[in-house]
């Protein structure tokens, strides 16, 4: 990562730590970040949608998007890039949750959240899809507030997540057209 980007990342994280963190906000942010743990929330939403005939394609695309995000972000990119977590690199930065043991780039919470949320936004239209994107954004921001990801980790998680969601949506459309299922 170029030094100027690393400097901006560090500045943002230290700014959040010094000016935004508060005893009132921290438990709320911890609860929000837990919605992204293991993508369990997004898996549950996708399974519920899969069980309803009218939203079965959305559920299928959501689950596929999560699998793609896991492969791209957590299995390939984290190990390929090998970026050390910010709390181990930025002097004075203190994480507010248990220190994750894997690499930092990209944010898996953000990637999986935006992968599923993008599918919901495209498939459910209206306020439900917008709400999914807002929640995904809050999960991404929570990773910064808690001091466990760099801003660029989260930004790339947004981009890769949307890419995985878009790809999953296209794949499900192609499968359903060819086989007339779901």
Strand residue percentage: under 5%
Query: How large is the count of helical segments?
Result: 7
Query: Termini, distance in Å?
Result: 44 Å
Helix content: over 70%
Biggest pleated-sheet summary: none
Shape descriptor: globular
Order of helices and strands: HHHHHHH
The Rg value, from CA coordinates, equals 17 Å
Assembly state here? Answer: single chain
**Unreliable parts:** none
Explain how this protein is built:
- The protein is mostly helical and 182 residues long.
- It is 72% helix and 0% strand.
- It contains seven helices and no strands.
- The chain has helices at 3-20, 25-34, 40-51, 56-81, 108-124, 127-145, 151-179.
- Helix 4 packs across helix 7, helix 5 (108-124) runs antiparallel to helix 6 (127-145) and helix 6 (127-145) packs antiparallel against helix 7 (151-179).
- The longest helix has 29 residues, at 151-179.
- The model has no long low-confidence stretch (mean pLDDT 94).
């Amino acid at each position: 990562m170029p030094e100027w980007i690393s400097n901006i990342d560090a500045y943002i994280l230290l700014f959040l730590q010094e000016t935004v963190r508060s005893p009132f906000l921290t438990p709320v942010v911890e609860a929000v970040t837990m919605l992204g743990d293991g993508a369990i929330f997004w898996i549950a939403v996708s399974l519920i949608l899969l069980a309803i005939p009218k939203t079965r394609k959305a559920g299928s695309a959501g689950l596929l998007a999560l699998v793609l995000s896991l492969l791209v972000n957590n299995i390939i990119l984290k190990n390929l890039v090998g970026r050390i977590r910010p709390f181990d690199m930025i002097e004075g930065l203190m994480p507010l949750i248990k220190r994750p043991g894997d690499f930092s780039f990209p944010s898996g919470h953000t990637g999986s959240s935006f992968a599923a949320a993008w599918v919901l936004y495209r498939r459910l239209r209206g306020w439900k899809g917008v709400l999914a994107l807002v929640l995904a954004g809050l999960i991404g921001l929570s990773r910064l507030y808690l001091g466990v990801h760099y801003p660029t980790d989260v930004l790339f998680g947004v981009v890769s997540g949307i890419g995985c969601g878009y790809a999953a949506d296209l794949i499900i459309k192609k499968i359903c057209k060819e086989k007339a299922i779901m």
